[in-house]
Amino acid sequence: MNRARILWLLFAVAAIAQVAIPLALIYRFEHILAKGEPVHFRMTPRDPYDPFRGRYMRLNFSIGTNHPIAEATSLVRHQTAYAILDIDPDGFATVKELTPYKPWKGRFLKVKVTWAQGSTAAFVVPFDRYYMNETRAPEAERQLAERLRNTASTTNTDPALSKDYAIVRLLDGRGVVEDLVLDGKPIREWLKESEGRQSSGIIR
Amino acid sequence: MKTDQKNIRWLHTEISEWLREGVITEGTATSLRMRYGPPVPERRLGFIIFGILGSLLITSGIILLFAYNWETLGRPIRAVLALSPLLIVQALGAWVLLRRQDSHAWREGVATGTMLTLAAAIGLIGQTYHVEGDLGGFLLTWGLLSLPLLFVYQSGMAFTLYQLIIVSWAANERIDGQYPQVYWLLLAPSLYLIWELYHLKNRERTLRALRWCLVVTLSVALGFTLEYSLPGLWLILYSGWFSFLFMLQTSDTATPDDTRTQKHPFRTIGGLGIAALAMVLTFSFGWKELIHVQHWTWQPDSWKDWLDILMGMLILGAAGVLWSQHLRERRWAVLLWGSAFLVFTAGYMVTVMTGTLGAVLLANAYLFVLALATMRNGLNHAELGTVNKGLILLSALILMRFFDNNMGLMGRGIAFILVGAGFLTVNLILSRRFKKEAL
Q1: Is A22 within 8 Å of chain B by CB?
Q2: Residue B221 and which of A37, A68, B240, B322 are 20 to 30 A apart at CA?
Q3: Mean pLDDT in residue range B182-191
């Protein structure tokens, strides 16, 4: 095979792989969103910035720290583990235990262990971002700060007591955030209402 | 051995001049022209740089445009749109392969563009689905998908980006406690580009840039890929590595402007590494981690430890081969710098057996001899730059000892003034002397 042919072959293989892998990612996430079980995770949102991917809400989840490690198993820092999830009486996800082995079935989440000692361990929640439109994210943060000032008694910065939550679609240990719920309303609706309240206040 | 195109161009101009002046005959001129071949026209560096820069700016702009997050568009549409800049650059790449394969600037631009739009596509899909994604996975995917571009476009910029990606990946693996050693497997195929360019004409400049990139990234990656289970092994490995680099490129004296730093990445980085290592090891803290270590009973207990040992043997073996070669050719100046790995290995042994004092004295003596020998070498060859390198080493050694002794501000102030004055005086005297000798 001459050099030109090899070059074209290499180009074609590279071009196909470069498109196929992102498409496979899109398919995987769409599949999780379509087929995954919706699970509610308590959290509190905050608004930082990623220079290339734009504005996002950082989601501070209540789960993640000090969970029991499954009996007869052990975990070390940086290890991949599986968080076996339960649903509490209020309908929110809690962690039953952490195991190094992938469960055959049930509700579980693939996580990375950040700390482990004895029979307890901590992990990072793999979906702690919610990207928003550049103009909406700071507005959302402003509204959240406003809400905190006005209703300090009913809103808590501790995610374990928060009334806000993320709806996450779970499938085979992977999760994709479907929506954020603030004060019982999806974030877009909540923002619209907050903006409405604010503009009517200004008119008055 | 390859001859620099710049020198060939210079030679061809001179041959015409010599012929005109009757210095050489027509026959000699023809022989010389045949000996060195015709000069390849000079490529426009500016055009290549602007090609890369333009590509960088356009793709960055596109990335930022998408980062705005067009919420009104549906999720799958946004995700697929994230792929569109990549598809456009890929189409441009096909056109470059068909019509502009000879254009270095086009190839560099399109390779850079493809790599950046690829990273943007993966990142923006993450944005669309609110997935943070793990950095290691992202870098590995980006690197592996970009690897073929190095060879398709023979691009120096793609090579540089690839090296940065895999070193960052190794760093991330080290932080995550995973497998940074896989870096060597990722590095190996990319080296084929250097071999390929070495056999092409008119690519000396790219080749030199790639060597610089490679030697810097390799020196950094070595630190990330070691397992560090045997304390102090890094010291022997790094001294071996820098000695190897220094001795690797000292026989290349073919070109008249040979002494310029930019032409000698291996020697420059090797020399800088040896000097830095020697300076650190003149302090006792440099050796402290070696005390109270049970070296004689240490046994490797994982393949990562064995890999450290293998790396050590390879690096020290390669340095040893070059060292004996320079010894046979009696290149004393090179040998002195290249002996760093022997000196520091001796220091390692001394520390393990008797404590840090002997090793500290050894490192101080080595740096002192290195400084004096470099100055002497500069004086012998009437090179003020080399004399200054020796002076810098000597001044650094003196100043470091002043700091080591916890001297007061007054003492340090006087030391600085004396060293500075010595520096200026030596430079003044030598520059006058060299000027006189040149006349």
Answers
A1: yes
A2: B322
A3: 94
Across B71-80, B260-269, B304-313, the highest mean pLDDT is recorded for B304-313
Res B191: pLDDT:
93
Beta strand ranges found along chain A (DSSP E) = 37-46, 49-50, 54-61, 67-68, 80-87, 93-99, 108-117, 120-124, 129-131, 165-171, 174-182, 185-186
| Cβ–Cβ under 8 Å, residues B194 and B207 | yes
Chain A to chain B, count of Cβ pairs less than 8 Å apart? 110
**Token couple for A14:** 């590279």
Q: Which residues contact A108 (CB under 8 A, 6 or more apart)?
A: A82, A83, A84, A85, A102, A170, A173
**Partners of residue B145 in chain A, C-beta under 8 Å:** 14, 17-18, 21
What mean pLDDT do residues A13-32 have?
Answer: 92
- How many other C-beta atoms are found inside a 10 Å radius of the C-beta of residue B405? 10
Of A21, A78, A176, the CB nearest to B130: A176
- Chain B segment 98-127 residues within 8 A of A by beta carbon are 114, 118, 120-127
CB contact under 8 A, B145 and A15: no
Q: Which residues of B touch A27 (CB under 8 A)?
A: none
pLDDT tens digit string along A146-163? 776 665 544 455 565 567
CB contacts under 8 A, B 165-184 vs A, are 176-178
Q: What is the pLDDT of residues B392-410, one digit of tens each?
A: 888 888 878 777 666 666 7
The answer to whether B120 touches B66, Cβ cutoff 8 Å, is yes
Q: What is the mean pLDDT of residues A107-131?
A: 87
Residues paired with A37 in a beta bridge: A170
* Long-range CB pairs of B162-167, under 8 A, 24+ apart, other chains included: B162/B115, B162/B190, B163/B187, B163/B190, B163/B213, B163/B214, B163/B217, B164/B217, B165/B139, B166/B139, B166/B190, B166/B217, B166/B221, B167/B217, B167/B220, B167/B221, B167/B224
Task: Look at A19 and B145 and tell me if their CB atoms are within 8 Å.
Answer: no
Q: Do A133 and B71 touch (CB under 8 A)?
A: yes
**Parallel/antiparallel/unpaired status of strands A54-61 and A80-87:** unpaired
What's the confidence (pLDDT) of residue A203? 36
